[in-house]
Amino acid sequence: MTAKLYKCLALIVIVLLAGCYPEGAQYTEELDLVYTNYYNQFDFKSQKTFAIPDSVVKITGDAFTDPDGDGKPQFANPTYSAAVLNKLKENMAANGWTLVNKNNNPDVVLLVSAMTTTNIYYYYDWWYWDWWYGGWYGWYYPGWYYPPYVTGYRSGSIFIQMAQLKGLRTGDNATVAWNCIINGLAEGGTADITARIQTSVDKAFAQSPYLKIN
After folding, report:
1. If you ran DSSP here, which 8-state letter would residue 59 be given?
2. Which of 3, 31, 60, 214 is the most exposed place for a label (fewest CB within 10 A)?
3. How far apart are the first and last CA of the chain?
């Protein structure tokens, strides 16, 4: 999946997020949103083992770039990566899955990637000038007369894909059985962001009961 498609999915999530809190959220964690979907013809019960990389790929553009020339993409912050990956392992084990090495022919693999977007808003409210124009039937803000301000925040999205590996041959396309998008503010201290990531991963499994195979 390209980064452009990831960005489109993240935008959809942000729009849904805005609809959840039309009057604004009171707490940062209220802005976290978890979306999950799955292939309803996939037989999860027949799967037993999974593999997972030890890093989270950082999406930085529309195409893969290799700035170091080592054949690898860029990776997300190790602290946040560990929070995601460890929670995924914990939830998979709780649902009856067994973690194996990628070379041990796992049934499925969990692939995790992430991106951060800076959102800038330009805003003004004509009510600020009500005292000046005395409740006229209209208003006009030439030049600097209107009271603008610029504000912004960073939002982060984590993408999780469960793909079937067993039985694949070279050149085959893997079936994506389950996918998850976690979206929220990438603001706050490390401990706060880490805790919210872990809570969101738990929610993803809570709303995906078909992942329970034991």
Report:
1. P
2. 214
3. 31
Closest CA to 32 of 17, 21, 46, 19: 17
Which of these CATH numbers, 3.40.920.10, 1.10.10.10, 3.90.1150.10, 3.30.160.670, describes 3-65+79-122+155-211? 3.30.160.670
Q: What is the DSSP string of 168-208?
A: --TTPPPPEEEEEEEEEE--S-HHHHHHHHHHHHHHHHHT-
The alpha-helical segments, DSSP class H, found in the chain are 3-20, 78-94, 130-133, 190-206
Please give the structure tokens belonging to residue 190. 């490390």
pTM here is 0.73
Question: Using one digit for the tens of pLDDT, what is the confidence trace for 104-141?
Answer: 989 999 999 998 887 766 555 545 445 554 544 444 44
